[in-house]
Automatic annotation (TrEMBL):
It comes from Microdochium bolleyi. Residues 21-34 have a biased composition (Polar residues). Residues 55-323 form the NADP-dependent oxidoreductase domain. Substrate binds at H144. The keyword Oxidoreductase applies. This is NADP-dependent oxidoreductase domain-containing protein. The record marks K113 as: Lowers pKa of active site Tyr. Keywords: Oxidoreductase. It comes from the Eukaryota. The lineage of its organism: Eukaryota, Fungi, Dikarya, Ascomycota, Pezizomycotina. One of its GO terms (molecular function) is oxidoreductase activity. InterPro entries: AKR, Aldo/ket_reductase_CS, NAD(P)_OxRdtase_dom_sf, NADP_OxRdtase_dom. The active site is at Y88.
Length: 350
């Protein structure tokens, strides 16, 4: 586990980029000494020593009746990381697939999360996720948001709480100490703990809190070319915290609004490479050094999102890195928590 005293927590180096296109990185090795050609990263190493797949599978908004099929398609396509959460109301359906799969448990990585109204009952919430997923352990357990809500009054209200009404006597540092306790309690229910949606301000607050000894293995946040979060990335890299990009495709399209897929630079690279705009966005993320967890309930897109990624050239990276500056920063997932959670956002972030 990543303890605060540990100093050697730097991220592994990102594989150097090459100018020639390369596809089907999933089967590629991390480095190839015979060809001396850089390959697409297939995994990143966490501060626990565990490996997290570079491209995982998101499950938010995979509706009842869809989520199980989507996960089956993801396994068949070769995904070996599922990003889950009780908030998504589909862990039980995903659990049916996990109970039936022939993929050995040691060969896939599962993340689940602790929802905000469960901060005071973390252990029970974890047990519920494990029961629903049909698992003895999860590889990674994340605090979903850095805000504590009072428990929902009835089960139907779970996830629909008023996010602006907070628990005044319990904050995310209390929750993290409890997650640390569970990590070490000998039950083996979680292999690593981490956070999500933490800004630099909240990360510093967590890391300097009395009694906190474990450095989060992961901070899962929205990361895409219009929201590269350089300051957050620098802090995470310095503290040995791996970043996972959620919403790497900009999330579900909103009627009347443009998407990341519409950005001219993204389209041009996709056209030149003969891949989808999604592959351009995902390849950029992996080249930046973070794991990406695209969601799809469309089996064709699911397969292509894993299969057709490539190592972007320096020129392609320069163009994609320039997008936030030219098009302006944009955050697609911005719920109102009634308090600042996105401390690092530029004032112009749309
Ligand atoms: N920690 C957090 O607070 C947090 C927040 C948000 C998300 N997440 C996690 O991150 C995962 C991914 O984020 P997300 O689901 O918000 O968004 P996303 O993966 O960026 O985008 C998903 C949307 O893109 C579409 N899509 C997928 N592949 C595509 C392709 N090749 N071409 C065009 N469109 C494509 C999907 O539609 P189809 O399904 O119809 O293909 C869906 O509408 C989530 O599922 C969840 O596991 C975590």
């Amino acid at each position: 586990m990543g303890v605060l005293e540990a100093t050697d927590l730097a991220l592994p180096p990102i594989a150097p980029r090459r100018r020639q296109p390369q596809t089907n990185g999933v089967k590629a090795t991390v480095t190839s000494s015979t060809t001396k050609q850089p390959s697409l990263r297939t995994h990143f190493t966490l501060n626990t020593g565990a490996q997290i797949p570079a491209v995982g599978f998101g499950t938010w908004k995979a509706a009842p009746g869809e989520a199980g099929r989507a996960v089956e398609a993801a396994f068949a396509a070769g995904y070996r990381h599922l990003d889950c959460a009780p908030l998504y109301h589909n862990e039980a359906e995903i659990g049916q697939v996990l109970r039936a799969t022939s993929v050995p448990r040691g060969e896939y990585f599962v993340t689940t999360k602790l929802w905000s109204s469960d901060h005071r009952r973390a252990s029970q919430a974890l047990d519920k996720s494990l029961r629903d997923l049909g698992l003895e352990y999860v590889d990674l357990w994340l605090m979903h948001w850095p805000v504590t809500l009072p428990p929902a009054s009835e089960p139907e209200g779970y996830g629909k709480e008023d996010r602006t009404v907070h628990d005044p006597e319990w904050d995310f540092r209390d929750t993290w100490r409890e997650m640390e306790r569970i990590l070490r309690d000998g039950s083996g229910r979680v292999r690593a703990i981490g956070v999500a949606n933490f800004s630099t301000v909240n990360l510093e607050k967590l890391l300097s809190a009395p009694g906190v000894t474990v450095v989060p293995a992961v901070n899962q946040t929205e990361l895409q070319p219009l929201l590269p979060q350089d300051k957050l990335h620098a802090l995470c890299a310095a503290r040995g915290i791996h970043q996972t990009a959620f919403g790497p495709l900009g999330g579900a399209p909103v009627e009347g609004s443009t998407t990341l897929h519409d950005e001219a630079v993204v389209r041009e690279i996709a056209k030149a490479r003969g891949v989808s705009t999604a592959n351009v966005l995902l390849s950029w993320g992996v080249a930046k050094g973070w794991s990406v967890i695209p969601k799809s309930v469309n089996p064709g897109r699911t397969a292509a999102n894993l299969r057709d990624n490539f190592v972007p050239s320096d020129e392609e990276m320069r163009k994609l890195d320039g997008l936030a500056g030219s098009a302006g920063p944009r955050r697609f997932n911005r719920p109102n928590w009634g308090t600042t959670v996105f401390h690092d956002d530029d004032v112009n972030t749309k």
